[in-house]
C-alpha cells in the first residue's frame, strides 16, 4: 500500500488521534509531519486507558507500527522526553520511535518570546499556546534555526545558539525587559537531551522511501487542521506550519505521487480554540450544551473550546483543498437529544450569498451563516455499529453532510472509544 494522509477538516481537535489509532494496527509506519507540542491527540484504548499525546504520533499505541517524527515538526526535547518516559512507565514500547535529524528544535528563547509577545499584543493576540512553536518556525524560515542533528555536534550547537541569542537576548532584555538567556546553561541542558535522543535520530526520508518501495503502508498524521494552515487557513489566526495534504509531502519527505488516499476528520459540529473568525459560533445554551456534552476542552492547554454548528462551507473547502477521498465524522452522539440540528450551508455577506469561502479576511469575519435545519433524534446511538442501527434522522444528517461536501462519509464516530464507530465504507482494503 502507498502513503495515506490523515488530517483535520476544521480548526483542529476533530478526533484525528482516535482515527490514527484505529488504523494503527493495519499500517506499518505512522508519521507526524507538522506542528509541535501545541497539538494534542486524545486516544482511548479498548481497555479504557486514556492517553494524551502531544509530540508522539498516535501510532505509538499500535503494537507494531514504526512511529516517526518528520522534518516538518518542531521539537521541544524536554517535552518529548517526558512523553517518552510517561509512555514507557505505562508499558508502551517507544523503541520504535525515529526522529528526523532535520526537524527543528524549540529553544528557551522561542518559548520566552512566544509568551512575552502574546502578552504584549493584548486584545490583538492570536491565541498561541505559548510553547514557542511560532518563533521556532520563524527562525527556521529565517535560516537561523537549530536542528536535532545539531545536538550531535556540540561545537555547531554552541555556535548556532550564540548567533541566535545575539539578537534574541537584545529583544528579551532591551525591548521586553526580560532576563537574557545564558548560552552555556542552554548548551549544557540540550547536550543532556542529546544523549537520550541520540538513538532515535535518523534519516527518516530514506526509511520511508524504502518502506514504500517494499509496498508497506505509511500513514501521514497531521496536527492541527486545514483552517489553521499557514497558507490556506484563517490567517493570521493560524498555526505556523502546513497541516494540509500538501504539507505532508514537505513535512515527511514523501513524494506526492505516493499518496493515494486522503482521509479528513470532522466533528458533527464545529469547534476552535484561540482567536479568529468563526461564523457558526454559538454564545447561547446550545453552545454550552455542545461544550458540556462533548467535553470540549483542549488536550494540550485545557482551554474551553469555542463551539458552533456544523459548517458545510468550511468542510467543503477542506475536502476540495486536500483532495479528500474519505470523510470521518466524529462525535455524532453529542447531537443526540436536540430537537433541531442546524447545518450552515452558506454565508450572507453584505446582502450577498456565498456558497464558498470568501476571499478576504474581512468578509469571512463578517459572514453570517445561512442555516438549514434538520430534525434531531433522541435515541442512544453509542451502541450502533452499522448504519442501519442509527436513527433515521441521524442517517439523514450524515447523508446531508455528504451532499454538501461532495465527499463520502466512510466512518461515523458515536462515542470516544476506539470501537465506538459506524463503518459505512472501509478506510483500508
UniProtKB/TrEMBL annotation:
<feature type="binding site" description="in other chain">
    <location>
        <begin position="13"/>
        <end position="16"/>
    </location>
    <ligand>
        <name>IMP</name>
    </ligand>
</feature>
<dbReference type="GO" id="GO:0000287">
    <property type="term" value="F:magnesium ion binding"/>
</dbReference>
<feature type="binding site" description="in other chain">
    <location>
        <position position="303"/>
    </location>
    <ligand>
        <name>IMP</name>
    </ligand>
</feature>
<dbReference type="GO" id="GO:0005525">
    <property type="term" value="F:GTP binding"/>
</dbReference>
<feature type="binding site">
    <location>
        <position position="305"/>
    </location>
    <ligand>
        <name>GTP</name>
    </ligand>
</feature>
<keyword id="KW-0658">Purine biosynthesis</keyword>
<dbReference type="GO" id="GO:0046040">
    <property type="term" value="P:IMP metabolic process"/>
</dbReference>
<feature type="binding site">
    <location>
        <begin position="331"/>
        <end position="333"/>
    </location>
    <ligand>
        <name>GTP</name>
    </ligand>
</feature>
<feature type="binding site" description="in other chain">
    <location>
        <position position="224"/>
    </location>
    <ligand>
        <name>IMP</name>
    </ligand>
</feature>
<dbReference type="InterPro" id="IPR033128">
    <property type="entry name" value="Adenylosuccin_syn_Lys_AS"/>
</dbReference>
<feature type="binding site">
    <location>
        <position position="143"/>
    </location>
    <ligand>
        <name>IMP</name>
    </ligand>
</feature>
<feature type="active site" description="Proton acceptor">
    <location>
        <position position="13"/>
    </location>
</feature>
<feature type="binding site" description="in other chain">
    <location>
        <begin position="38"/>
        <end position="41"/>
    </location>
    <ligand>
        <name>IMP</name>
    </ligand>
</feature>
<keyword id="KW-0963">Cytoplasm</keyword>
<comment type="subunit">
    <text>Homodimer.</text>
</comment>
<dbReference type="GO" id="GO:0044208">
    <property type="term" value="P:'de novo' AMP biosynthetic process"/>
</dbReference>
<dbReference type="InterPro" id="IPR018220">
    <property type="entry name" value="Adenylosuccin_syn_GTP-bd"/>
</dbReference>
<dbReference type="InterPro" id="IPR042111">
    <property type="entry name" value="Adenylosuccinate_synth_dom3"/>
</dbReference>
<feature type="active site">
    <location>
        <position position="140"/>
    </location>
</feature>
<dbReference type="InterPro" id="IPR001114">
    <property type="entry name" value="Adenylosuccinate_synthetase"/>
</dbReference>
<keyword id="KW-0460">Magnesium</keyword>
<protein>
    <recommendedName>
        <fullName>Adenylosuccinate synthetase</fullName>
        <ecNumber>6.3.4.4</ecNumber>
    </recommendedName>
</protein>
<dbReference type="InterPro" id="IPR042109">
    <property type="entry name" value="Adenylosuccinate_synth_dom1"/>
</dbReference>
<feature type="binding site" description="in other chain">
    <location>
        <position position="239"/>
    </location>
    <ligand>
        <name>IMP</name>
    </ligand>
</feature>
<feature type="binding site">
    <location>
        <position position="40"/>
    </location>
    <ligand>
        <name>Mg(2+)</name>
    </ligand>
</feature>
<feature type="binding site" description="in other chain">
    <location>
        <position position="129"/>
    </location>
    <ligand>
        <name>IMP</name>
    </ligand>
</feature>
<feature type="binding site">
    <location>
        <position position="13"/>
    </location>
    <ligand>
        <name>Mg(2+)</name>
    </ligand>
</feature>
<dbReference type="InterPro" id="IPR042110">
    <property type="entry name" value="Adenylosuccinate_synth_dom2"/>
</dbReference>
<dbReference type="GO" id="GO:0004019">
    <property type="term" value="F:adenylosuccinate synthase activity"/>
</dbReference>
<feature type="binding site">
    <location>
        <begin position="40"/>
        <end position="42"/>
    </location>
    <ligand>
        <name>GTP</name>
    </ligand>
</feature>
<keyword id="KW-0436">Ligase</keyword>
<keyword id="KW-0342">GTP-binding</keyword>
<comment type="similarity">
    <text>Belongs to the adenylosuccinate synthetase family.</text>
</comment>
<feature type="binding site">
    <location>
        <begin position="413"/>
        <end position="415"/>
    </location>
    <ligand>
        <name>GTP</name>
    </ligand>
</feature>
<feature type="active site" description="Proton donor">
    <location>
        <position position="41"/>
    </location>
</feature>
<comment type="pathway">
    <text>Purine metabolism; AMP biosynthesis via de novo pathway; AMP from IMP: step 1/2.</text>
</comment>
<dbReference type="GO" id="GO:0005737">
    <property type="term" value="C:cytoplasm"/>
</dbReference>
<comment type="function">
    <text>Plays an important role in the de novo pathway of purine nucleotide biosynthesis. Catalyzes the first committed step in the biosynthesis of AMP from IMP.</text>
</comment>
<dbReference type="Pfam" id="PF00709">
    <property type="entry name" value="Adenylsucc_synt"/>
</dbReference>
<keyword id="KW-0547">Nucleotide-binding</keyword>
<keyword id="KW-0479">Metal-binding</keyword>
<feature type="binding site">
    <location>
        <begin position="299"/>
        <end position="305"/>
    </location>
    <ligand>
        <name>substrate</name>
    </ligand>
</feature>
Amino acid at each position: 500500500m502507498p502513503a495515506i494522509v490523515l488530517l483535520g477538516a476544521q480548526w483542529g481537535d476533530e478526533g484525528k488521534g482516535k482515527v490514527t489509532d484505529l488504523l494503527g494496527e493495519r499500517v506499518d509506519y505512522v508519521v507526524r509531519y507538522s506542528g509541535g507540542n501545541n497539538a494534542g491527540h486524545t486516544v482511548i484504548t479498548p481497555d479504557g486507558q486514556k492517553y494524551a499525546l502531544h509530540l508522539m504520533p498516535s501510532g505509538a499505541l499500535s503494537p507494531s507500527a514504526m512511529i516517526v517524527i518528520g522534518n516538518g515538526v518542531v521539537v521541544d526535547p524536554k517535552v518529548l522526553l517526558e512523553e517518552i518516559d510517561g509512555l514507557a512507565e505505562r508499558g508502551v514500547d517507544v523503541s520504535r520511535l525515529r526522529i528526523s535529524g532535520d526537524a527543528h528544535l524549540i529553544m528557551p528563547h522561542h518559548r520566552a518570546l512566544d509568551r512575552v509577545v502574546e502578552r504584549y499584543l493584548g486584545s490583538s493576540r492570536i491565541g498561541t499556546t505559548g510553547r514557542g512553536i511560532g518563533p521556532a518556525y520563524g527562525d527556521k524560515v529565517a535560516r537561523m534555526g537549530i536542528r536535532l542533528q545539531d545536538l550531535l555536534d556540540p561545537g555547531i550547537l554552541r555556535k548556532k545558539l550564540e548567533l541566535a541569542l545575539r539578537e534574541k537576548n537584545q529583544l528579551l532584555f532591551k525591548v521586553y525587559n526580560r532576563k537574557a538567556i545564558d548560552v552555556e546553561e542552554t548548551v549544557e541542558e540540550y547536550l543532556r537531551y542529546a544523549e537520550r535522543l541520540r538513538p532515535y535520530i535518523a534519516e527518516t526520508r530514506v526509511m520511508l522511501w524504502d518502506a514504500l518501495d517494499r509496498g508497506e503502508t505509511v500513514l501521514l498524521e497531521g496536527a492541527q487542521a486545514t483552517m489553521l494552515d499557514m497558507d490556506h487557513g484563517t490567517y493570521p489566526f493560524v498555526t505556523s506550519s502546513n497541516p494540509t495534504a500538501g504539507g505532508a509531502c514537505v513535512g515527511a519527505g514523501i513524494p506526492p505521487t505516493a499518496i493515494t488516499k486522503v482521509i479528513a476528520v470532522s466533528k458533527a459540529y464545529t469547534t476552535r480554540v484561540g482567536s479568529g473568525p468563526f461564523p457558526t459560533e454559538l454564545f447561547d445554551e446550545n453552545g454550552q450544551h455542545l461544550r458540556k456534552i462533548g467535553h470540549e476542552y483542549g488536550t494540550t492547554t485545557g482551554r474551553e473550546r469555542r463551539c458552533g454548528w456544523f459548517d458545510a462551507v468550511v468542510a467543503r473547502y477542506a475536502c476540495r483543498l486536500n483532495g479528500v477521498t474519505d470523510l470521518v465524522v466524529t462525535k455524532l452522539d453529542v447531537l443526540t437529544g436536540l430537537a433541531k440540528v442546524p447545518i450552515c450551508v452558506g454565508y450572507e455577506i453584505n446582502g450577498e450569498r456565498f456558497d464558498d469561502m470568501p476571499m478576504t479576511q474581512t468578509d469571512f469575519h463578517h459572514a453570517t451563516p445561512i442555516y438549514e435545519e434538520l430534525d434531531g433524534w433522541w435515541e442512544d446511538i453509542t451502541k450502533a455499529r452499522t448504519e442501519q442501527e442509527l436513527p433515521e434522522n441521524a442517517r439523514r444528517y450524515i447523508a446531508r453532510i455528504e451532499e454538501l461536501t461532495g465527499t463520502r462519509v466512510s466512518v461515523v464516530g458515536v462515542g470516544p472509544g476506539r470501537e465506538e464507530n459506524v463503518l459505512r465504507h472501509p478506510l483500508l482494503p
